[in-house]
Sequence to fold (961 residues):
Amino acid sequence: MEVVCDLEAARRDLADEILCGRSSVAALGRFTAEIDAYLERLRASIPAPPSPVALIALGGYGRRHLCPHSDIDLLVLFGDRIGAAEERFVRGLLNPLWDAGLAVGQQIREIGELSQAEVDNPEFLLALVDARFVAGERSLFDRCRASFHVPRTHAHVLAALQTLVDARHAAFNGTLYQLEPDVKEAPGALRDISAARTIAAVTDPSLLRRGVDEGPRLDEAEDFLLRVRALLHIEHRRNHNVLGHAAQEKIAERLGYPGRGPRQRVEALMADYFRHAKAVSRVLERARRTAPVPMGVNIGGTRDGIRFVDERKAAIQPATWLGAFQAALDAGTVVSDEALACIKRSVDRFKTEDFFPADEDRAALLAFLKPRPGLYARLSEMHDAGLLARMLPPLQAITSRVVRDFYHKYTVDEHTLLTIRNLERLTAAPGRGRPQMAPEIPSGRERFASLLRDLQSPEFLVLALLLHDVGKWREEDHASESMRMAEALLDRLRLPAQARDTVLFLIANHLRMSQVAFRRDTEDPEIVRAFAELVGVEERLKLLCLMTLADIEAVSLDTLTPWKEELLWRFYVDTYNHLTLEYGDELIERTQTGVAECIACRPPDLPAPDVAAFLEGLPRRYLRLFDRDSIYRHIRLARDIHPDEVHLSLEQNKDVWDLTVVTLDKPMLFSNICGVLSSFGMDILRGQAMTNPNGLVLDIFQFTDAERFLALNADARETVQSSIHNVVAGRATVADRLAGRRRGVSRRRGPDVAPVVHCDDQSSRRYTIVEIVAPDQPGLLYRISRTIAAHGCEIDLVLIATEAEKAIDVFHITRRGAKLSEPEQRALAAGLQRTLEDPDEAVEGHYPAQQG
Amino acid sequence: MKLLKAIIRPNKVDEVKDALAKLNLSGMTVTEVRGHGKQKGHTAIYRGKEYNVSLLPKMEIEVVVAESIVEDAIRAIVEAARTGEIGDGRVFVLPVEQAYRIRTGEREV
Fold:
């Protein structure tokens, strides 16, 4: 049965209502309801497609402001894929609308398409603000709303709206005083009302209630302008919105404006028009000026800093507060006084867990604590508002705490915060390319700044600094007391075991490095060895070194002298060299404490002899690098390994992939594995390669999927793994795999830094050590290790590190089981230098045929 | 009176202070200084790159002593600061013509 809509009758009714002076908004609402009902009847009359569907009114139709000849902006939203049946449904819907003489602006979407805001389609984004359910499946509409009303999309809407308003106003020379105004588009006209309401909707719903009488004045202006627009449509019998001279006379007369002649009536009408347009302009101008830019759930940015959009809501949602400080940090601004006052009023009602109820909240805290410019200022705001000590209760014990000694110049809490300021000062990028407003790294500190850039998790250092002196509420042995208090807090924050250990280590030892560096004979190798033993690995050394620097500098203005910096740096270098150059001589013995613990705590599936056999002869460093769970995983991988076999695991950890390879030693092994990773475009960031005396090889790589091979291919993991198997087993060669990549490798050259190759046969009894610092480039490790192998050398141990765009690799090598002679070292260094200076040469590979 | 000016290893300050205290010499000035004598610095290597460390961190202790205990004080410093390696430092002995106590203006003998 044909569905009929008597559009003309509806338009006549609308005209009658408008002319008899009733509310035009109400009249347009009734006219819109007629269209809604027609659409619903139409939908019900068409065979339902397999996919659920919702009809959604957009823009002015969504606002129920349809004038007699307005376009009908409609979103036809499907819950599933759009197929032939859905297309038939759309035709069945739109054809009768067109036949009825309606101008339809239709958008057809699958619900999945709305998960990403269409930032390149600002008009559609804006129209969605006023989306209103008309007919069909309501739950689809609800999903559409939920995915649209998020701060990120709101921020896009706000930005798009500002641009569109500027462009529209420019088309009218920026003035509302038009002799023949367009009542929809002109400054102060209907679109501006809608813009002001949209700004409020996406930023702060109470925005338009804040000015004096703004709400009622806007309503009044809207009713007037809609009345005029409706009459223009009726007069011209089309979607015509320009209030021209002729129309002004007719409409002034129809609306009963007083005056002896048309001219007086028109003047009265236009006086009304300009009065309303002026009011609209002022409201919009204020809304644009004061609206908070959406920066998070209930968080907006204003000229006064970050504020809560709805303070009453914020007051009972403490888990959202950290977001305000994060937003301020991101935007390089402050948290507004209003927001801080709101926090201050409510903070005492909450405890630690209320601020971090979920894993994501705890992760957000750690992300917030990454050192960067502004962190000290934000933490200080949090502390002054009483928030920091509520989140991290041990800080309560040292708030405004005064400790009298000869050195400290500040209260313990301020000293604590200043340590973080000192650290953040090392985060500014040096030299060229530095953002103009970013502070410079203090002179002479670049070397310490480079340590900070090296750190994998600098946020643990900040957490340790926040807690390092909390034990100072007691007079003696504050480091142990700080550690005791921190332990309880870290448990409440559910910090992962390794992170917890690191933070507690730093707190417990925060005085050790300065004690040794400034008061002990650091030229004594035994002192250095003992300190290296304490820190265990480079990461902890760097953490402790930076902690020491930041801590001393926060004691008073002149406690950290260049003299102390120099002593600290030299001690760091000596310990670093010990850790990276001498560890090859310190091997795990069966009787060692760590081994006994590993055996005692082993899971039931691992026999004690397997554990002992695996560990014995690996560098002791291994026990410091890995926790017991990782060690047991490695032992399982090493089970039943045979020549030419590879046991491996490949895991993703956020943006970084971890590859663990266990195999039996053979020539070119390390080079081949690096070559396979390079052939897939992987960028190796960090790694270790170790060998035990039985020829068992354990290689651990962390790399990024630089060319997104793993991200984009479903079977990519299997492909990478099988390639490693094949290359190690000799079924394929790296050269085959790398064929065709030459151009890619040459294209991506690293920064312009001269490569450094240094051979050292003093530091280790067993090995010649080759240290290489070079611009990071794809395939670098492969080329280096291939060159080393080509010189007849065996690679036993490798440390791989990347700092910014520099690769720092340390190889422990031998030749025919012994250290290299002087001439052999010179030849190798020269070969490596050539390889580093000419990547193309190495990739092509003019080396003798390789074994394996 | 003599002014003893001792350039010593930083880690030896406490031992030298203690040794001087045993001679009832408690007043002293300690300054962080950098310099080199015969030791002339050395070459350090960090991440494969050599750099020359020419000025070494040292501590300077200044103490004014009566003529009668100059020799004892010098011996105390030398014994406390010695490791037997290059870089142990120096003691300089300078004559002091006059000394005044600032608070009272009185001349010290």
